[in-house]
Design goal:
Keywords: DNA-binding, Transcription, Transcription regulation. One of its GO terms (molecular function) is DNA binding. This is Repressor. InterPro entries: LexA-like (IPR039418), LexA/Signal_pep-like_sf (IPR036286), Peptidase_S24_S26A/B/C (IPR015927). By secondary structure, the protein is α+β, with helices and mostly antiparallel strands. The protein has two domains: 121 residues, no CATH class; 132 residues, Umud Fragment, subunit A, CATH 2.10.109. It is built from seven helices and nine strands, in the order ααααααββαβββββββ. Strands 2-1-3-4-9-5-6-7-8 form a nine-stranded mixed beta sheet. Helix 2 crosses helix 3 and helix 5 packs across helix 6. The longest helix is centred in the N-terminal third of the chain and has 15 residues.
């Protein structure tokens, strides 16, 4: 039985395969959205609720998706920590998606199969990294920073689909990044995303690559963050407005700032550096 982050990745892969939002998942299980965020981030879910989750996704994934034997029954499930696993757990969410497609993919629409398979194949080919945030860089001063395959909107928000982008992985010197003032603990916490839209101009322009720290998963002070709000992904400046709200700020004065609920805002990373390219 998968546990911890691997279980969380399996829940997220099943959610994508079923085509439900995190908000809908929370509504269906009558829990608050932060609880669902804990499920997919850390695999933090009690045993009784986990059985309901497995049953909920049974139409798109089978027991093998969760690291269970094919003859699994709910009554035979022992303590979550001691369940036998028939084969090694997949090492990333992309592996889990491929495993799910191979064993349960016949139940998926062709469009969903194609989208999920494209993400898995891109990961195999060393192209854009889909969800494997933990991959370390190269040994030595030069390290690889993985390019996360989402557009983070600086306007009305973007759904997290697959997009062809100009950048693949990039290789940089951590010491040089620190000389530029980029603060981070470990280089494998750094990822690249692409800004999309004009609302953060002139700070961030349309299609600017951004180096973000995915180890920052909560508000740590005024700054620009990559976050999910209302099931869409944003890059905006955040400030605390009051005990219940953030102020979501656009640097472009043509775009209005707005208040958003703190308990409905899920920070994914903090933006550290804009990788601008200017013609001269």
């Amino acid at each position: 039985m998968l546990t911890g982050p691997e279980l969380g990745a399996a829940i997220e892969a099943a959610r994508i395969a079923k085509g439900v939002s995190k908000k809908q998942l929370a509504d269906d299980f009558q829990v608050k959205p932060p609880s669902v965020q804990g499920w997919v981030k850390n695999g933090r879910i009690d045993k009784s609720k986990l059985m309901d989750v497995i049953a909920y996704f049974a139409d798109v994934v089978g027991p093998e998706h969760w690291g269970l034997r094919a003859g699994f029954t709910y009554e035979s499930l022992p303590d979550v920590a001691s369940v036998s696993v028939e084969e090694p757990a997949p090492t990333s969410a992309a592996d889990m998606v491929r495993n799910m497609l191979a064993k349960q993919g016949k139940n998926l629409p062709e469009s969903a199969r194609a989208q999920l398979m494209a993400a898995a194949e891109a990961s195999d080919q060393g192209n854009v990294i889909t969800v494997d945030f933990s991959r370390p860089g190269l040994v030595g001063d030069e390290v690889r920073i993985a390019h996360y395959d989402v557009r983070a909107a600086m306007g009305n928000g973007q759904a997290t689909h697959d997009y062809p982008e100009m950048l693949k992985d990039i290789r940089v010197s951590p010491s040089h990044l620190r000389e530029l003032g980029v603060e981070f603990e470990e280089h494998f916490h750094l990822k690249v995303v692409t800004g999309w839209g004009q609302s953060m101009e002139p700070t961030i322009k349309h299609r600017d690559p951004l180096i973000v720290n995915i180890n920052v998963r909560e508000f740590v002070g005024d700054g620009i963050y990559l976050f999910v709000w209302d099931d869409l992904l944003y890059i905006k400046r955040l400030q605390v407005a009051d005990e219940e709200h953030f102020e979501m700020i656009s640097d472009n004065p043509r775009h209005k700032d707005r208040l958003i609920r703190r308990d409905m805002t899920y920070i994914q990373a903090r933006v550290l550096l804009v990788w601008n390219a200017h013609l001269v």
